[in-house]
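Quick one: HAD-SF-IA-v1: HAD hydrolase, family IA, variant 1 from Gaiella occulta, structure tokens please.
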Amino acid sequence: MSRRREIVFLDVGGPIYDDVWYARALLGALRELGAEVTEEDFWREYDGCRRAQAGIRRALAARFLGAGADVVELSARARRRWRYPPEALYADVRPALERLASRYRLGVLANQPDTTRSALERDGIALLFDVWVISDEIGREKPDPRIFAHALSVAGCEAGEATYVGNRLDIDIRPAKSAGLRSVWILRGEAPPEPTAEQLAEPDAVIRSLAELPDALERLAVAR
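--- reply ---
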């Protein structure tokens, strides 16, 4: 199988855009739903969720809205506030994607609002992607295994020909591995600030910058 047929799927929040913009949308949505939450309390809880790597929206809803809070409604309200301004784009994204596009196909596989395409187009990187799988467009969200199966089907490849790059263990790395994809964990955004040894052992590779991704993929190829 030629190297060109392999595909690298990327999440958007974390690998490409700074997750702080989604976190701020969540804070606004919590307040809209009646939560009396300070900035300090929110960011303290949010950092705890990052460390735990398990259900950030659910944990924030329970903490600030109470047990049994409507997570679906929280998500919907956050989505209406969720936009990536130009300054949300990480500086390492374009150079890394341009380098990757010369050797791999690239795909978006992300839980994102349908405005994400326009942000990537505005920032001049949309044309680098061959495959698009955005949750709001297909009606499924990670970690649902069907979204990974759908991505592979659209890409026309087997799981062994694909790698997934995300910044969450719970909705990125674990379901990608379960679907048979190689996994690369990027430690920014909703990743924990200081991952444990156990967490670091879960993905196939760990990077702290998208600039490190091309070399990480090369090492994974050699290890196969």
